[in-house]
Input
Amino acid sequence: MINEEKENLSFDPEILREKYLQERDKRVRADGNDQYVEVKGDFSYFVEDPYVTESISREPNTNTYHTIVIGGGFGGVLSGARLREQGINDFKIIEKGGDFGGTWYWNRYPGASCDIESYIYFPLLEETNFIPKRKYTNAPETLDYFNVISEKFSLKENALFQTEVNEVKWLSDEKLWCIKTNRQDSIKAKFVIHANGFLNKPKLPAINGINDYQGHTFHTSRWDYDYTGGDSNGNLENLKDKKVAIIGTGATAVQCVPHLAASAEKLYVFQRTPSSIDERNNSNTDEEWFKSQKKGWQNDRRENFEGFLTGSFSNRDLVNDGWTEIFRTILGGLMNNGPSKLKIFSWVISAPFYSDFYKLGLKTYIRNEFMKFISRKDISQKVEMIDFQKMEKVRKRAEEIVNDPQTAESLKPYYRQLCKRPCFHDEYLQSFNNDNVELVDTDGKGVKEINAKGIVHDEKVYEVDCIIFASGFEVGTDYSRRCGYQITGVDGITLSEKWKNGLSTFHGIHSKGFPNCFFYGPGQGPFTANFTHSLDEQSSHVAYILKYLDNKKLNFVEASDNAEKEWNETIISKARNMESFQEACTPGYYNNEGKPNTNPQNNSYGGGALEYFELLGSWRKNNKLQGLVTAE
Output
């Protein structure tokens, strides 16, 4: 069968496999994540807040609160909203930025936008009655929406802005947490929610001579509009007589390069690995359609989207975007090849008799069986062939859009679709047709040297007035390092010490030895492209637990030994065997810069996000806080 398929293809799978390996091998580095430097000391200016117009002056806070929430992104505001819904009002949200927004507060670079549909990415749309302007939103509208949520739930009165946490320590005698900040605050709280976010700490490439450069520099997450002019919509008029270099071609660069190309006298784009650029096809929101949606529509839509990404397919794709198209392509390709078991899975999941009664049991079973099915060697080969075909179309798109054949070839991604986060954009590739734009393809090596005048590559100095680092955020480093503060629990044990040999949690939210402490996102929880869905589910879950404790007049809660042990075993047993796939991928944050995680404890929940959400919902319905130890 495989040989027959091969004869009908426009490409040779063996040649592509070899090409993928060659492209991976030239990029794999022994130093892995160590190829980046931490933004501190001499590099601290890269993380200063350029958006604060007026510094807040206040006395140190030494009060005691019911709950402290650390982080003012979607995790923080959702926590505040869900606490309000539960009648818990004695809380503070600590945020180092000047306002709510999290990653959207910091990432205001020109063209910043979301690659997840706004109707599922924006949480609480039914509660706020907010109508996004377009299918895919941008940074300005997202920041506006933070204000909408904040006003709806009166959150700013509970916020401590321009405040950075330095230490979180458990006081055993008082059964309280002590939170110290850069403003000399010594705040105490019964409960602490760590809503720091997944991508929050910028990273810089460890390039020789980076400190020797005499021109202007900044990181894309701290865009310097005083230098470039313009705003999030572009119009960077101050660059009209400037030569600019941008290092990095990931999702951020894909969005801001078109604006730099439209404004700079000269733009050099330094590339290590090209992104996969598919069509975006943004569109305006049909307000009549939006207003016609029935109660519960947003959660139905979120679950439908997540289903396509995790093997719980529906007979209708409500979102119908580039993300679901990836998985529809795989599903359609498999079904066209006729495996009857797959057809049964698809039919049962979408069948009319499939009621709420079956959701947790039957649907979970079918999803698990489906994942086992597509992991079979023969089916995996078919998936690979479908992936090859899809990526050939992506590469063909670059070839059709970019005029210069050599540049077009350099912009072609030679790796599997999900080795890196897919990008969807309709102006990035076109930018390389501008006479003032030059792609500097480092052939997988990356930039290795900077001098006083600019960037050195292949013995040529690219003299520029400004270097912009689009080098992303820390992923895979120590959790406390990414947070920017250490967490010290019972008996003086730090979280870094407890997790040094692998994550250990219950539900990815609790960790024994750190009572009254809740985590969003370090691992052992759900992984989803639509991260706000996960944050919404987890914040609702934590708010439920806190309300339960208040009702029972309980002041202490932590994971039991057995619950944590069993959850670790669940994570290990459900860990999908992705190691071989990730090892074959080009380096990036998806595979820990070419050094895939080999500790199965550090995986996300292997049953997928929907199964995880269902598990938490069932746990709450039991109403007994199973697995948690409580005390007055």
Remarks:
- Confidence is low (pLDDT under 50) at residues 338-360.
- The chain has three domains: 64-201+475-631, 203-276+385-469, 281-375.
- The chain is about 35% helix and 15% strand.
- The radius of gyration is 25 Å.
